[in-house]
Predict the structure.
Amino acid sequence: MREGDGEAVFLACAGPFGELARRLLADPRPRRWSGELTPLVVDGRPWAVMASFHGDDGEAVAALPLADVADADGDARLARHAAAIAGGRRWVALPGVVPAPAGVPAIIAGAWADACVEYAAIAAFYGARRARRSQVPLIHHIDEGIAILRAIDAPTVAIRAYCLHPLVQGDADLRESWERGRLAGLDPAAVALALEYRCIANGFLSPMEAHPGYDDPKAIRRSPLAEVDAMLIADKIQNAKDFALHHRESHPRAAWLERYFERWLEALEVPPVRVRELTGLISAPRPYLGAPLRL
């Protein structure tokens, strides 16, 4: 292809970069992607695309060769131009999705989660399963919830416990997790918090239309533990984001669900402006093409 050709080939890289961005948000030193895609051009020929990820400790980059460029040397060329592409910035990568050029040191997105036994437990439980209506991978609920927990300065034990809450929240899941030993070898404090979360969260579920919490948030029972409050904040904001994105216009109980999330967040004393900020944090940016970088 030549410079100035259509956008579709560049936008096809948005999916892998979006996956990288989601994992980076859940890292201890999170980074954000604006959605900008930078075409990389050599001799008037676009052959790769770059994305930049911004964090408190500076900017990092990742790049992918274009899928429709018939160039067996694409990965090797990426390695040859790595220094020019990075321009002194660090590389980030997500193995199997957005690799780093050969021989180039990189920050590995999701390294904390990959080393966390509680995250491994929920990843094994969810596998490749997706939500029935939206078809969003179930693990996104965990990754985006972790990003919220980090943004509100929740302690690590609350993050580990949040990873576990789907294993114990439903009666059948709790029984199966116990019988299959899914909770064995995990942080006992994280397991305890996940069980307290189960107790509090199950006290007010959206189908409970007669629950007084629908009219008065003060009627919603809260935990005495700040860690569980933080887990509930992450859960409700993440679920509310997906509800607004995928279900608000089509779900038969949309009005009830809208009130349900609002009442929970009022009970947890999260101001609407903060809800909007945290929702924006975990919302995927819209990809767009930036100015090309000529190497």
